[in-house]
Amino acid sequence: MGLKSKGNQSIGLQGVVRKRDKAFDQLAFNEKYLAVSGRMIDDKQKKQIDLFRLASQKKLYPLEQAAMPPGVVHETRRREALEVLVEKQRMPRRAIEQSARRLAKKSGEPAGAAYRKEKLGALDAKLEADQRELLAKYPESDAAPSADAIARYEKAQKEEDQKLQELVKQCETDKQNQLEKLGKKLAEKNKKYKAIFESTNQRLGALYGGEAGAFHDDTIMRVQNVKMYFSGIKAVDDLSFDIKEGEIFGLIGPNGAGKSTLFNCITQFYKATSGTIYYRDKFNNIVDLSHYKSHDVLKTGIARTFQNLEMVLNVSVLDNLLIGAHIYYHANLFHQFLQTKRVKDEERVNRALALDILERMQLLEYKDVPPAGLPYGVLKKIELARTLMTQPRLIILDEPAAGLNDVETEDLAEIIRQVRRDFNCTIILVEHDMNLVMNVCDTVCAISFGKKLAVGTPEEIQNSPLVQEAYLGEKEEVV
Fold it and tell me: Is domain 219-311+371-472 annotated with CATH 3.10.50.40?
């Protein structure tokens, strides 16, 4: 049974897909929520421990002072008091210096110097007098602290250290108990979600089973005889190729060759005139993407960037990433309006994911900064980071190096490799920068006027006569 169903049957199938995806999302959310909850407990307990340490320091401070030699205590107090007095004179001294400069311009340098000497001299005299008062108040001393004071301080310090160790142990026990309780609660919920997921995915797996025929285990996408016509113009003309899972696949061709049109067919912005695009989704089912609407393709694990940057420039970089995770927010308008626990839990989970991605992409320093005004190369990295918020299986990059200089392009090449490696993604790259394509791609497909010229390794494509002719034109005969 295929997915060529019409009317109510097709609508019913889409309902099964949504039911499966919702159950899977809830299972994934619960797993992340347990980890995020552990970090939240750690943060809360750290504040508790820090407050205890601060209270202990205040409690021990008088005893510590009593256990120190009087001369050392007095020297410390004199130094601290003197720093305060010097700070109080900083602004008056600055004002005197400015006044002396104005007077020198008006009446000559001698007048300015005299004014400076008089006023600063008065401040110096005041500071010397204050120092004498401090010395009288906190005199120098060679006396030793009493043994009783030292003993009281050491005893109190040991007691506070013991209390701190007990608090740390208690916090660890409380954390384990809370996580165990939460884990049991989530496990009960997960039984229901797992049953829904397994039943719906099994049903869909049977329905999808015969869609692509012989689909190799290492293949993630098959473009098969795809055509896209616009009023008779053949933007894509009977194009076919396979993409292996985990590879960086380059799509090249002159302007107007049909590269972006093919991308739009894959993501269902355009419905192909004919042909099929098969895709192995994140559940390992082989699906025909033509049965999906464009906004549902993202749920299958396909994400893309665009030639032009698409960002909300007046909110922070972190918020831009959170916007990218919109498909994983399931709280409805009612929950949003009341800011219920469900909304806050989803926000915490997605925020933790966004911060992790920003750190891996070396963008954490920009998390609270709006994108407006940031370097173009940084904006490109932010856009790529946002696609990772959808936890994609396959990423389509549409001319990511456009507008970048040579250094930024080299940096982008390393980032693309890192994304493939760290996030276990397959990447489709359409690009005019041949150095980037040849350096990062495992396989390259060259097209011209919507037709395939050649598919192979970067070296094979560089040496292909058809590709050379498409880029350089036919060689003229020398007469």
Answer: no
